[in-house]
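Usage example:
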Amino acid sequence: MDFFVLEVSSINSIKSKIIANLIYIGPAFKRHATVIVPLLRRGKVVSNFELIIDCTDRLLNNWRRKPCEKIHTDIVQQSQNLMLAIFGFIGFNYDFETLNDDENENNNELTKELHYKMSVFQMVSFSPRFLSKIYTNFSPRYRRSQGIINKYLNEMTEKELNESPESRAERKRTCLIASLVASLQQDEKSEAMKNEQDKKG
Amino acid sequence: MNKIRKVKTFNRKIYKFICYLLGLSRNEIFNETLTLLIGAFDSTSSALSWFIHLMSKYPQVQQKIKAELMKDNDNQQLTLDLLDSLVYLDCVVKEVLRFCPPIIGTLRTLTMDDRLPESGFQLREGDSVLIAINNLAHDPRYWSIDPELFYPERFLNEDKNHHPYAFIPFGNGHRQCIGQDLARFELKVIAARLMQYVTFGDGGPEINAGGHSEAIIKPRHIGVTIHFDR
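Running the assembly step on the lines above writes:
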């Protein structure tokens, strides 16, 4: 994760969208950083020590069940599964089910779509801009994936909004999704219509 | 005119202060969530894959990590205090990130015209410059010990005081990676836990050849054996 500085005028393709998220400029960068940065400092992340160990132990248990002479060629995928599980719990209190006993039987829809989204990102990263735009605007698979991801993110947000105010106030100091939802603008529709320079936050 | 300019400047400062304090729209939250998810798991999982690959290639490094973990810790409990005391493992994590940084580079945009000092190449305000992280980490001008060697001890001795910009796996400056503390912590905890239980073995020259792939730099060919020590 890195915040780059670039001028982005029109944002349509997946590549532009992801890059734009990485490169909020000026005041937008500050608004986003204010919400997220405090939760990712070392003082906060060490509280997840036990959780990281638990997830790693689950991966070790999966390996233990395999024959010892096996050559593991899916280490990249195994590492992704572990990291996704850890970050799901730390950031969003969400189980991506990537460390299940039978790792080949992950039916979690969001996990599948995130992997698909990553593969598209890898594909369009080195493609000409017009090709990535065509793909992301006209591919039914991509548009369906976007819809599914939005559905889950919406559910996470709604779940957080349904928590009691006390619980939300407490958790926003430790949980990323709680902090993000706590920063939700009150009148976001009218805010969305404004230019970045005129947004209240 | 001067007064109007002063008022405008004041308004801009007030606006920036308000922006600094207030929150995000729902759409921004969605984008932020997705970006954090993808950014968090893809780059850190790449670093973990490289760690496993390099451990399989350098058994003596694995043995040194295990020895450090066992020292004064017969019951092999992993605690925060023990983790903080693992100096050699810190060096290994750094060396993995130096040897195979998961990110190709970081971009910066010029805020004014400039010229490169040696080549004289002219850069204009608004140009984006790619700072190639891997090239810096492997440039022999900035490292005392051959940068093409995987040698974690360099961070204890000869290259302890390396050039600050020769090793920037998370970028640097005002806009360096916001998730670096979490990434470093995750990598160290996972590496320590794995080394407490398993030894990685080389699966063979072809199947475990390494190599780079895709936008996030991951091993293209990785094949390791996993032997449980206990």
